[in-house]
């Protein structure tokens, strides 16, 4: 065992204080760091700023922190199936920055790579670049805080908008396999946003289903090297939930 291994999820999230910013991995409910989120809720921290593709559902994932009123601001690309997310946003209780999904992914990656900003065509000619998107509503339904306009520039014959990288105080991620040095392997759709969120955190905390010794993972199979991971905790097999279950009626052809 190395100094990166924590004995519990609670020990792994120790040091995350109220007002911290978090980059959180996962895609819908796939590959979310549920044990770390639950431990954070138990710790009682609040006023959190979250960068994540979405905010879970009402009773699972980041939705737990949201329902408890622990999140101050969210940067996400997808509201999803979370009714409480929509309610808080429209009621003026939550600040929300909606951003294109690919832009969010690249902002996280850029933060981990040390790139402060980049130009992208996504959002040019819309409120993403022109400003005016409601970040926070007033309690009377008015726009209390609107997004500012962003710098645009023409390369060749095409206009691009400048997007800034994301660096978070902490990152919370879920991996299928990790070794005690922090090298991680993600499973299928859990590859979405988990490696990128991990790169963007100043302190990255990984929960893993299987914890192995260094050398047991083929180096060619490592998705994220341990240099990006500061803490790791073995949480065992994850109880995987379906965000929106859809089935065909009995006897009906598929």
Describe this structure in words.
This protein has 7 helices and 13 strands. It has 254 residues and is of the alpha/beta class. Strands 1, 2, 3, 4, 10, 11, 12 and 13 form an 8-stranded mixed beta sheet that branches. The chain has a 3-stranded antiparallel beta sheet with strand order 5-9-8. Helix 4 links the parallel strand 3 and strand 4. Helix 5 packs across helix 7. The radius of gyration is 19 Å and the shape is globular. The termini are far apart. The mean pLDDT is 93.
Keywords:
alpha/beta; 3-stranded antiparallel sheet; 8-stranded mixed sheet; about 250 residues; 7 helices
Shape: globular
Count of extended strands: 13
- Portion of residues in beta strands equals 25-35%
Please work out how many helical segments DSSP would assign. 7
Largest sheet: 8 strands, mixed
Helix coverage percent of residues?
10-25%
**Which structural class do you get from the secondary structure elements?**
alpha/beta
Describe the secondary structure blueprint for this structure:
Layout lengths: L8 H4 L8 E4 L9 H10 L4 E4 L10 H6 L3 E6 L6 H8 L4 E4 L2 H13 L3 E4 L6 H4 L3 E4 L5 E4 L5 E4 L2 E7 L3 E12 L4 E2 L8 H7 E12 L18 E4 L20
Parallel strand pairs: 1-2, 1-10, 2-3, 3-4, 10-12, 12-13
Antiparallel strand pairs: 5-9, 6-7, 8-9, 10-11
Helix pairs in contact: 5-7
Brief summary:
The protein has helices spanning 9-12, 34-43, 62-67, 83-90, 101-113, 127-130, 194-200; strands at residues 21-24, 48-51, 71-76, 95-98, 117-120, 134-137, 143-146, 152-155, 158-164, 168-179, 184-185, 201-212, 231-234. With 254 residues, the chain is of the alpha/beta class. The strands form three sheets. Strands 1, 2, 3, 4, 10, 11, 12 and 13 form an eight-stranded mixed beta sheet that branches.
């Amino acid at each position: 065992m190395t100094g990166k291994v924590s004995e519990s999820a609670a020990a792994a999230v120790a040091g995350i204080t109220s007002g911290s910013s978090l980059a959180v991995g996962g895609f819908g409910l796939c590959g979310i760091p549920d044990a770390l989120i639950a431990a954070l809720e138990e710790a009682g921290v609040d006023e959190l700023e979250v960068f994540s593709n979405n905010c879970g559902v009402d009773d699972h994932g980041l939705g737990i922190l949201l329902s408890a009123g622990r999140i101050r601001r969210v940067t996400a690309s997808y509201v999803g199936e979370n009714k409480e997310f929509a309610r808080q946003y429209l009621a003026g209780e939550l600040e929300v920055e909606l951003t294109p999904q690919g832009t969010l992914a690249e902002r996280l990656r850029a933060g981990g790579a040390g790139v402060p900003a980049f130009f992208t065509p996504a959002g040019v000619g819309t409120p993403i670049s022109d400003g005016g998107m409601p970040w926070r509503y007033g309690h009377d339904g008015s726009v209390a805080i609107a997004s500012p306009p962003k710098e645009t520039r023409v390369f060749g014959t095409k206009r691009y908008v400048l997007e800034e990288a994301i660096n978070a105080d902490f990152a919370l991620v879920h991996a299928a396999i990790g070794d005690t040095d922090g090298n991680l392997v993600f499973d299928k759709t859990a590859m979405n946003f988990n490696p990128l969120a991990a790169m963007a955190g100043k302190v990255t905390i990984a929960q893993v289903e299987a914890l192995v010794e260094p050398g047991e993972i083929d180096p060619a199979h490592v998705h994220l090297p341990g240099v990006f991971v500061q803490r790791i905790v073995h949480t065992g097999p994850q109880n995987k939930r379906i965000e929106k279950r859809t089935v065909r009626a009995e006897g009906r052809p598929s």
